Amino acid sequence: MKKAFPKQFLWGAATAANQVEGGYRAGGKGLSVADCARSHFDEDLRDYARQNEVTQQDIEAAVRTTDESRYPKRRGSRFYEHFREDIALMAGMGLKVYRMSIAWSRIFPHADDEQPNEEGLRFYDAVFDELHRYGIEPLVTISHYEPPLKLALSYDGWYSREAVGLFARYVETICKRYKNKVRYWLTFNEIDSMQRHPYTTGALLRERFAGKDFNEVIWQAMHHQFVASALATKICHEQNPQALVGCMLTKLTYYPYSCRPEDVLQAQQEMRKMYACGDTQVFGAYPPYLQKQWEREGVRIRMEPGDEELMRRYPVDFVSFSYYTSSCCARDPRGLEHAPGNTVTAVKNPYLTASDWGWQTDPIGLRISLTELYDRYRKPLFVVENGLGAKDVLEEGKVHDDYRIEYYREHFKAMRDAICEDGVDLMGYTAWSCLDLVSESTKQMSKRYGFIYVDADDYGNGSYARYPKDSYDWYREVIRTDGAEL
What we know:
By secondary structure, this protein is of the alpha/beta class. The protein has a single domain (10-480), classed as Glycosidases (TIM Barrel, Alpha-Beta Barrel). It is 39% helix and 14% strand. It has helices at residues 17-20, 48-51, 56-64, 79-93, 104-107, 118-133, 149-155, 162-177, 198-202, 214-239, 261-283, 288-297, 307-313, 363-377, 402-420, 470-480; strands spanning 10-14, 97-101, 137-143, 184-188, 244-250, 253-256, 318-322, 326-329, 338-340, 345-347, 381-385, 426-432, 452-454, 466-468. The strands form four sheets. Strands 1-2-3-4-5-7-11-12 form an eight-stranded parallel beta barrel, surrounded by four helices. Helix 4 runs parallel beside helix 6, helix 10 packs across helix 13 (307-313) and helix 14 runs parallel beside helix 15 (402-420).
């Protein structure tokens, strides 16, 4: 029997507001934590801890500065100005779904404003209307790495219980406004990532928690996000009973470096760091192994009456995730070579090739990930981030990116095998990304992910003109034939 993707499969591409929109002061938008994250191009870009380390002094300097060149998230790809052109290009590629995010600080500029910013709401009305004009379904991430800056400075970020209420009001505002325009929602992007970059995900400034166990601070903030995710699911369903709400996880796939039982156990424990967040949002309760971990580490979570009941009653409808690479684990990693990945650095797999930035390419790992997740959760899955960051070259208006086509071809085959051979229920796929944008891991524009080239460098120089790459035409054919091109 011929393998094929389902006819209803949602082929698409993805972006995030803080990486693509720009217009950071336009239309009444307030500052977000992303607007104050400075680039560190002169340092080791594989040092993700340094890339995501922000202090209150850094924020004060960011607010004062008139030099925007080192704050690439403030520019993005200028989607705020080009969204009609960009959506027309998406339609030309045949996209059925576009994963995007709403910038919280464009709707509530300071998080605690008495009224939402109508100009910000109208902007997303225009974006959704334009998408629907071309028959493209929006898949909206409610919070994608950009809490309003005031949440960090006045509320201690998501550590504060007040963040839950502020977020719920934001969710109610957008779900009510867009209930007839958006059916698919994601609550928090890579909710597990707060363990790796707490400022970006949770608006947490380490120095504000002197004398506290910062590990406990992170877990308390994550508890508040789990409660807020359940609230968001409840609100979305109340506004539109046909809406589907998903969680979003970083799929960090680990293999044991050897068949030594100690390495196998280490890989299992590393995987649980991600699974803990999926288990909580799918099953509506903290898994026993996470509760045991808290006991060992002395972590005490403050819960309000009703928190656990809310989480239990409003689990997510589907599970979405990012997948870029896989890594290895060893109980004793000393002397082993390491390689960077999606905001992590781990033991290098000697059997895999790597991208220009050292991320190892493993399409079979995507099939393994899909099968593991579906076996565990038995809920529909959605791959919402997957792609190749590369040093593309624009010559006479063309980018010949055969390497990207090969990357996607092999990953698409892995998805097809997961569906046709492993029985995985896969709703859709949104490639990262439809157009070049500011990389989250390195803050570079030159780490290019798009099917569409954007003429801008790491410091914001360039015309910002758009040029479809060879992969643009190839992906259009994949979508047109539902993968028969493979």
